[in-house]
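User: Predict the structure for this protein chain, please.
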Amino acid sequence: MFTRLKNRFVLVLVAFTVFAFSLATAPAVCAQSAESASSPSLAGAWWVTVTLYNCATGVKRPPFSSMLLFSRGGTVTETTSNAAFLAGQRSVGFGIWERADNGTYTASDVAYILFTGGPFTAGTQKLTHTITLDNDADFFTDDATVQFFDTAGAPLNAGCATATATRLK
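Assistant: Here is the predicted structure, written as structure tokens:
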């Protein structure tokens, strides 16, 4: 009789553990944004060609490449090969993205400018993007603003950029 009671207790304990685990993991499964389920999506890794220009005059600078990673759930990670930065001067950028009501995407990311040198002052660089994805979700165009801030958060200067990107496959 004791063995039968012990077996029932073990069975109830196992059932309770499975039930508790199901409840514990359910919120994590549902916590992703609606964007992660939609198709096509900006989510993925992108090879980007960036052209900076003077917002007032339209004078363009030579293009350079960057890489962007738009993660499901709405975060973005970026890095750049912009030769205007000294080696080790700029960190990787981190930010957020989402789909806008008109079908475009908005994104914003910030990188640290770790030390003063060349044309840059220590502080942060903030990029604000408006991205238009093509119908096949393999190409996008980007209109962006670039803002620089000192270490106290005071604005230093700003610029504009356009970019084209292809999805890494």
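The chain has a mean pLDDT of 83.
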